[in-house]
């Protein structure tokens, strides 16, 4: 599925399932906004 041109909000995505979902959405072409209480573990890019 192509998510090119779409933006996804991934809450709780600093680790675990949320992180895996965020990376999967990015792999499918979405722009990702990641939010989590633990800002130190949020991926930078």
Present the secondary structure layout:
Elements: E1 7-11, H1 16-27, E2 31-35
Parallel strand pairs: 1-2
Shape: elongated
Helix/strand structural class: alpha+beta
Distance between the termini: 23 Å
Number of domains: 1
User: On the 0-100 scale, what is the average pLDDT?
Assistant: 89
Strand line-up in the sheet with most strands: 1-2
Runs in which pLDDT lies below 50 for 5 or more consecutive residues are: none
Range of strand content: 15-25%
How many helical elements? 1
Helix/strand order, N-terminal first: EHE
Largest sheet geometry: 2 strands, parallel
Rg on CA atoms, Å: 10 Å
Number of strands: 2
InterPro entries: NAD(P)-bd_dom_sf
Task: Give structural attributes.
alpha+beta; 45 residues; NAD(P)-bd_dom_sf
Summarize it.
By secondary structure, the chain is α+β, with helices and mostly antiparallel strands. The chain has one domain (7-38).
Question: How would you portray this structure in words?
Answer:
The structure is a single chain. Strand 1, helix 1 and strand 2 form a beta-alpha-beta unit. The longest helix has 12 residues. The chain has one domain. Helix content is about 25%, strand content about 20%. With about 45 residues, the protein is α+β, with helices and mostly antiparallel strands. InterPro entries: NAD(P)-bd_dom_sf.
């Amino acid at each position: 599925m192509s998510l090119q041109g779409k933006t996804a909000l991934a809450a709780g995505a600093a680790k675990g399932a949320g992180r895996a979902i965020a990376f999967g959405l990015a792999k499918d072409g979405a722009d990702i906004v990641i939010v989590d209480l633990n800002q130190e573990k949020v991926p930078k890019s």
